[in-house]
Specification:
Blueprint (H helix, E strand, L loop, with lengths): L1 H15 L3 H17 L4 E2 L5 E2 L7 H8 L1 E5 L7 H18 L5 E5 L26 H5 L4 E3 H6 L4 H10 L8 E8 L13 E4 L9 E2 L5 E2 L9 E11 L6 H6 L5 E5 L12 H9 L4 H15 L3 H4 L20 E8 L3 H4 L8 H14 L4 E6 L3 H10 L10 H21 L1 E5 L5 H13 L29
Parallel strand pairs: 3-4, 3-11, 4-5, 6-10, 6-11, 12-13, 12-14
Antiparallel strand pairs: 1-2, 7-10, 8-9
Helix pairs in contact: 4-9, 10-15, 15-16
Bound molecules: guanosine-5'-diphosphate and magnesium ion (MG).
């Protein structure tokens, strides 16, 4: 890092007096030197001197840091992606037993469900949805923008953007595209394994003229892959550790289709540590809390849901949370009803259940989170006129984005006296976990609607926190 501090100090004045042509030439050499050797420093007079920082211990240390990047199958939604983060955090913890690895947070964007028109929803940093310092208390993470800024000065980065001299070593990774085995399980036997294999699906990366791989890369056009390999993988996330440690030499490695890997230990301590560290961004919690107070007569003191920002200190006793005087409902529609799933109710069936729960728990208010289309929403309002919904104005939506609104919906459902969700929805599952963290009685949490004609309506599983 010292090396770059020196660059930052000297680059700026040196550039000011250079003519554009000369400037570009110098910059070009600068970039090449940085990328190829990274051991050269710019001296006071703007010339290059090689070899200085190669002896600097700080630089040597900095070079030892390795970065794990990942991405998920494009059609997957927000809440499965949150689950994949847990798997990757677990892998990074394993890698950190052998070296200094950092997890790079994949920017949010281009999600299928984020359909609000006219809102720019790509390259969204995690800080818009989560408290990054809370994540960091679990495992070292870095936002993507910080990662590409990395060892390069802000000045240099701006210059690169302006002149489109795009190659940044930091932003290039060996890309490993994970996939299942083409042949499935051999002999019907499950075993954990990883092998380099021909790509099963069409590769979503293509080579450019310079020989680098272009791909989605969260909408960052300057990011490229140095090489792309398909890996068939079957097993828990950490089975990749030996390969990443011993066979891959690039500083940064990206796992695409990371959802292929399973949890190291689902619902174990490490799982829950990571899950608990995924604290929602403060501004979203505040908006949710204000809404609860204003429309649902719900405050943390009355509801015994006092939160601790420091997740490492939040350890609520099971059954201690009371929750606000309202029923929380997550009613997943859209693709869940298009498939005519038999475990999803009709609106009429859902309203009937809602009314019976309100009666049973003596609740006069009901908060409904749903992705229902406008038509269904109108129908729902007709049948359940008293329902309360969080309805952002366009200005709010532009600020919070679809992801922020979804989190606020989840936060409000989390604080309800009683919650009922939709079968197999990861959106509902995340609410279960959040309520578990706050210390709700499991009976008030692990509930789901049944389909109108569903015979065996199995209720969700209670996963207890391991502290
Ligand atoms: N605001 C809001 N968005 C929702 C709700 N239900 C679904 N969505 C949107 O639809 C997406 C559903 O995808 P996903 O997160 O994968 O959950 P799943 O498909 O239900 O397992 C969410 O990420 C939201 O963008 C809801 O109740 N409120
Ligand atoms: Mg989904």
């Amino acid at each position: 890092m010292w090396e770059m501090a020196a660059v930052r100090r000297t680059l700026h004045p040196a550039l000011l007096w250079l003519s554009p042509g000369k400037f570009l030439a110098v910059l070009n050499v600068f970039l090449l030197t940085l990328t190829a050797v990274r051991a050269d420093v710019l001296s006071e007079d703007g010339a290059f001197r090689a070899g200085q920082s190669a002896t600097s211990p700080a630089a040597a240390v900095a070079r030892d840091v390795r970065y794990l990047l990942y991405d998920v199958n494009p059609p997957e939604g927000f809440n499965l992606r949150r689950d994949v983060y847990i798997r990757m955090a677990s892998l990074v913890k394993t890698l950190r037993n052998h070296g200094d690895w950092v997890l790079v947070l994949p920017p949010w964007g281009r999600l299928y469900h984020w359909q609000s028109p006219d809102i720019h929803q790509v390259r969204i940093p995690w800080s818009e949805f989560f408290s990054v310092s809370s994540l960091q208390a679990n495992v070292p993470v870095v936002e993507y923008e910080e990662f590409i800024a990395g060892e390069h000065s802000a000045t240099l980065r701006d210059v690169q953007r302006r002149f489109q001299l795009l190659y940044v070593e930091q932003a290039s990774a060996s890309v490993l595209v994970l996939q299942n085995y083409a042949e499935g399980w051999t002999d019907g036997k499950w075993e954990e394994k990883v092998d380099e294999r021909p790509c099963v699906e069409r590769l979503m990366y293509s080579r450019d003229k310079q020989g680098y791989y272009r791909g989605w890369f969260w909408g960052y056009e300057e990011t490229r892959g140095l090489n792309v390999t398909c890996l068939s993988a079957q097993g828990h996330a950490s089975i990749l550790a030996p390969l990443l440690l011993n066979n891959i030499t690039s500083t940064s490695v990206m796992l695409d289709r990371a959802e292929t890997l399973l949890h190291d230990h689902y619902a174990g301590k490490d799982y829950w540590d990571t899950r608990r560290s995924m604290v929602f961004a403060k501004h979203l919690r505040i908006i949710g809390d204000e809404f609860r107070a204003k429309y649902l007569n719900s405050t943390d003191e009355d509801d015994r849901t006092v939160y601790n920002e420091d997740w490492t200190r939040l350890k609520a006793k099971l059954g201690s949370a009371k929750g606000g005087p309202y029923l929380g409902v997550h009613l997943r529609r859209k693709d869940f009803i298009w498939g005519h799933r038999e475990d999803v109710p009709s609106l009429k069936g859902a309203v009937k259940k809602i009314r019976s729960l309100m009666k049973k728990y003596k609740l006069e208010r009901v908060f409904v989170a749903t992705d229902a289309v406008e038509e269904e929403l109108e129908e729902l309002k007709r049948m359940l006129p008293e329902m309360v919904r969080f309805e952002p104005t366009w200005e709010d939506l532009e600020l919070l984005k679809d992801g922020g609104v979804a989190i606020i919906d989840q936060w409000i459902c989390t604080h309800a006296r009683y919650f009922i969700g939709t079968a197999l929805s990861t959106f509902s599952f995340r609410i279960h976990e959040e309520r578990e963290i706050l210390g709700f009685d499991p009976k008030t949490t692990y509930n789901r609607f049944c389909g109108d004609n569903e015979k065996d309506c199995e209720q969700p599983t209670h996963w207890k926190i391991v502290y």
